[in-house]
Amino acid sequence: MRTVGRIGFVGLGAMGEPMATQLAAAAPVLVYDVDQEKARRLAETVENVTAAESAAELAPAHMVICMLPSSAIVEAVILGPAGLAEVLAPGALIVDMSSSDPRRTVELAHAVSERGLELVDAPVSGGVRQARIGELTVMFGGSAAQLERCMPAFEAVGSRVVHVGWVGAAHALKALNNVMSAVGLSVACEVVEVGRRFGLDPNIMLEVINSSTGRNHATETKIAQYVLSGSYDSGFLLRLMLKDLGIAAELAHDVGAETPIGQACLDLWTRAAEALPADADQTRIAEVLQGDIVREGGDA
Ligand code: NAD
Fold first, then answer.
1. 132 membership: H or E segment, kind and range
2. Could you tell me if 285 and 237 are in contact, meaning their C-beta atoms sit under 8 angstroms apart?
3. Which of ligand 1's atoms lies nearest the C-alpha of 11?
4. I want to staple 160 with a disulfide (CB 3.0 to 4.6 A). Which of 137, 169, 257, 268 is the partner?
5. DSSP bridge pairs for 162
6. What is the pTM (predicted TM-score) of this model?
């Protein structure tokens, strides 16, 4: 593995914690999370990791990766008081690996460029399982030279890197991918529920569907594992998926595209988010479709 200089990493949640752990095998990593206990714990358990108590303490890093819930939080960490834009040395590169809003990413890249910094987008797919083994897919938005600069870090967290286009392009693609992921999960939960009520065995349904034309990522990797098992712990929050559906809907609106399926999915997940706790896993959309949470007409 090629080595990289000192890297800053902000956001040690379900994805950030395993990603920072993988990175630490390639380079010294300075980690920060608003929940300081997460940073302290990682520094205690993983070699090459040092905990920072604020974003300002990431000042020595030549590259800072953000793995945060939303554009609003990424902007606060970068442009807020004593934020990255204030403390990083000119020439430093900020890599937003969160699933952010592409239009806000373009604006943010412009804002940091006025302070001599660069910002690129590099969202990931694969989820927590792939993050733990360093096999994420990384989508990249930025120049070829910027990609070259990021490659050693990407090689540490991912097994596939795709140069999607300009800054913001990768964030757009990530949101669009997640529309398909949410629609696939929703329809899988829906048909399994219809079959169950008719008296079919959901496990037999999956066995057939997974060797038939109806199979998708959810039928293969989520329904048996997280829904039928009752564990509801895929590691991706329902409210984060809802954020991605909202980003994609705004994108579609901006380009004048009709998205009846995406819109129906957005409506369903909005109702689900209103009815379920803030920390509900995405797979709990099944409970909504089972009628346990939201009855027809949207009443909780
Ligand atoms: P998460 O909610 O588990 O983690 C977010 C982390 O950010 C938390 O540790 C939180 O304390 C920290 N944080 C929040 N505000 C902060 C601030 N102001 N300063 C510093 N730290 C702050 O989320 P996650 O599942 O790790 O997802 C992170 C991003 O990656 C999201 O944009 C999500 O949409 C995307 N994503 C998630 C998955 C997944 O499977 N979980 C997969 C691909 C992409």
1. helix 127-132
2. no
3. 7
4. 137
5. 139
6. 0.95
Q: Could you read off the pLDDT of 106-131 as tens digits, one per residue?
A: 999 999 999 999 999 999 999 999 99
pLDDT in tens, 263-278: 999 999 999 999 999 9
Instruction: Tell me, using a 6 A CB cutoff, whether residue 18 lines ligand 1.
Output: no
* Pair of tokens at residue 249: 């809907």
Sorting pLDDT into bands at 50, 70 and 90, what band is 148?
Answer: very high
Q: Directed axis angle between helix 169-198 and helix 238-255, to 10°?
A: 120
Helix (H) or strand (E) holding 31: strand 29-32
Is the CB of 99 inside a 6 Å radius of any atom of ligand 1? yes
Best residue for ligand 1 mutational test, from 9, 10, 12, 34 (most atoms within 8 Å of Cβ): 34
SS3 of 141, please?
strand
Contact between 279 and 285 under an 8 Å Cβ cutoff? The reply is no
Q: How many residues does the chain have?
A: 300
Do 167 and 121 form a contact (C-beta atoms < 8 A)? Answer: yes
Task: Give the closest residue (by CA) to ligand 1 atom 19.
Answer: 34
| Tokens representing residue 186 in the block | 């929703």
> Contact at 8 Å (CB) between 204 and 138?
no
Q: Are 118 and 146 in contact (CB under 8 A)?
A: yes
- The pair phi, psi for residue 131, each rounded to 5°, is -65, -40
